[in-house]
Design brief:
Helix content: 40-55%
Order of helices and strands: HHEHHEHHH
Strand order of the largest sheet: 1-2
Largest sheet: 2 strands, antiparallel
Low-confidence stretches: none
Distance between the termini: 12 Å
């Protein structure tokens, strides 16, 4: 979900870098803003996400370098998160088995072997490089990050 938000900001011509995006993800992981809990000011709170206002201010602080870009950020944020009041808690781990099942449906035996041979660290480094190189949304294919392709970075 958040990778699409990153590309929405880039499409809005905001100079958002991969490093800043990773800083946002790290801040979420560290709990700079926390999941909404029943003890918060809203007693009907869902315990599995972040208040959209908290996420907005955190993302603006980490992703926008200059206040002249606030309007662009606000429009892109509003367009992407239209009608959403709670952002999913991305710090919870996705069960490894779910990821494996998804990959097995989309990858050939050769692709699976290449990914396993690459290892986690090299795979993450390759992902980082591709995020830096890729400038727009992508669908299909085997290299870029996107949907409908065979890249290990998105389907």
């Amino acid at each position: 979900m958040l990778i699409d938000f990153f590309y929405t900001l880039r499409a809005a011509k905001l100079p958002v870098s991969v490093k800043e995006f990773l800083t946002l993800l790290e801040a979420l992981k560290l709990g700079v803003v926390g999941p909404k809990t029943p003890q918060s000011d809203d007693d009907s709170a869902e315990p599995s996400g972040y208040r959209i206002d908290d996420f907005y201010y955190l993302s603006r602080a980490t992703l926008v370098k200059d206040e002249k870009h606030y309007d662009k950020f606000d429009r892109a944020f509003a367009a992407y998160f239209k009608g959403i009041e709670l952002v999913t808690d991305f710090t919870k781990d996705i069960p490894l088995e779910w990821l494996r099942q998804t990959l097995e449906l989309n990858l050939s035996t050769e692709d699976k072997a290449a990914i396993e041979k690459m290892g986690w660290d090299e795979l993450m480094e390759t992902l980082k490089k591709r995020l830096e190189e890729q400038k727009e949304r992508h669908e299909g294919g085997s290299k870029w990050i996107g949907t409908g392709g065979t890249s290990p970075f998105g389907h």
